[in-house]
Amino acid sequence: MISILQFILVVAVGFIVLCWSANRLVEVASTLAFRLGMPLLTIGVTVVAFGTSAPELMVSSVAAFNGSGGIAIGNVVGSNIVNIGLILALGGLVAPLVVKARIVYRELSILLMTTIGAALMLMDGTLSLWDGVIFSVAFVAYSFYLLKSSTGQEAEQDIPVLPISTFRASAESLAMLVMLVLGSQLLVWGAKGIALAIGVNELIIGLTLVAFGTSLPELATVVVSARKGLHDMAAATVIGSNIFNILAVLGLSGAIGLDISVDAAALRIDILTMVIMTVLLAIVVYSSKASFDTDDTEKKTGHIPVSVWKVSGYKCLLLLFTFLVYEVWLVVNAS
């Protein structure tokens, strides 16, 4: 009989494989896209954005395929809560949280709408095929809108381009996708084993252990951005990832799982927390003072300074405090 320590080891290995393969996938896929002539900005809003959320996509899809509805849905809800309440909040405490006007007026508004829409659709504890179709169609529409509205703009982030051939980039991209699936299988299997071994609902495992693990790429991005002085990247990464989680991850999971479900009563508090965290994020951003700022790129190109919202540390503490209260509630009510 497999012990709980062995399940924990499997989960740890799954996390490592997921994070490493997701990071490498971003590098080789970006290189491949560049070699094929894609603009840097297009690569940034597609390949790089996909890469940071690839673990959530793979884990929830594999869980849905295996009939583990608690992990599939809990991973998305939990990841969105972790992204805002822990990762973004800590990032704002380490360095100034800067949000540009484009993020405030477009992505943040879209995140609010998609979060509330997802909450209404998941309140019954079921992610149906039609729910998946709706999320998927919305994701395709959002992607086209994102690419079209970005036409003519400069790339706002460093796009990794490796000194490797097109053939090698293609081969490594396929290999990393296989590694992502393998890591996801290990993670889901190990997480289910832990849940059964300690008698905890797999929804709780999905909301905590799995959600935090699949959010590691976002954490790494926020930390690296802060170290490089790209303070506006933190909010852009988290908001973009949360939109992707709801539309793409839930969309694919619903299509694969064919009516996956969890305990609706157990999920309601978690969905409500996801909505509260998103609304709180909007409040702390909108209530912050807007100013004009010019980054290094704009100074070099002579672009007109853009409006930015700088969120103070105590507002980030509010997000972190709300997240900690939710985590305490999860632990106390775990069963």
Please, could you describe this protein's structure?
The chain has a three-stranded antiparallel beta sheet with strand order 1-5-4. It has a two-stranded antiparallel sheet with strand order 2-3. The protein has one domain: A middle domain of Talin 1. The longest helix is centred in the middle third of the chain and has 33 residues, at 166-198. The two termini are 23 Å apart. The protein has helices at residues 4-35, 40-65, 69-94, 101-122, 129-149, 166-198, 202-214, 216-227, 232-257, 264-286, 296-301, 313-333, and strands spanning 97-100, 126-127, 260-261, 290-293, 306-311. The chain is 78% helix and 5% strand. It is built from twelve helices and five strands. Helix 2 (40-65) packs antiparallel against helix 3, helix 2 runs parallel beside helix 6 and helix 2 (40-65) crosses helix 9 (232-257). The protein is mostly helical and 335 residues long. Mean pLDDT is 78; it is low at 296-304.
